[in-house]
């Protein structure tokens, strides 16, 4: 593992930024939560528990109940890098979440964001 510094960041510090990004574009915290639950398999209570524990991003994804099997359908560019070509599995999960939140902020319908 490369030990990228983002892995050590507390998820509870990144989460409000996702919510703010969505809300600036007239989307909701509930939609952000739905995306996170879809991606990671957390329940709403499980997500809240992770936020309360202030786990780092690496732990947040390591303790995720089950990554959605449709993550392979998430394609596109985040920070100039194609998410489907990222070699580090943890970084790929982080960028998947970034990509989904970007799609939400760009006004995509939830059905498309959740690959349904």
Q: Calculate Rg over CA atoms.
A: 13 Å
- Indicate the CATH architecture: Orthogonal Bundle
- Count of folded domains: 1
Global outline: globular
Low-confidence stretches: none
Strand order of the largest sheet: 1-2
Q: What is the top-level CATH class?
A: Mainly Alpha
Give, in order, the helices and strands: HHHHEEHH
Q: Kindly, what is the distance between the CA atoms of the first and last residues, rounded to a whole number of angstroms? A: 32 Å
Q: Strand-residue fraction? A: under 5%
Q: Which range best describes the helical content: under 10%, 10-25%, 25-40%, 40-55%, 55-70% or over 70%?
A: 40-55%
Could you describe the largest sheet, including whether it forms a barrel? 2 strands, antiparallel
Structural category: mainly alpha
Rounded mean pLDDT is 94
Which topology does CATH recognise?
Helicase, Ruva Protein, domain 3
> How many alpha or pi helices?
6
Q: What's the number of extended β-strand segments? A: 2
Please name the fourth-level CATH homologous superfamily: uncharacterized protein sp1917 domain
Write a structural description.
It is a single chain. The chain is mainly alpha-helical and 116 residues long. The chain has one domain (5-108): Helicase, Ruva Protein, domain 3 (Orthogonal Bundle). It is built from six helices and two strands; from the N terminus they run H-H-H-H-E-E-H-H. Strands 1-2 form a two-stranded antiparallel sheet. The chain is globular. The chain starts with 10 loop residues before the first helix and ends with a helix.
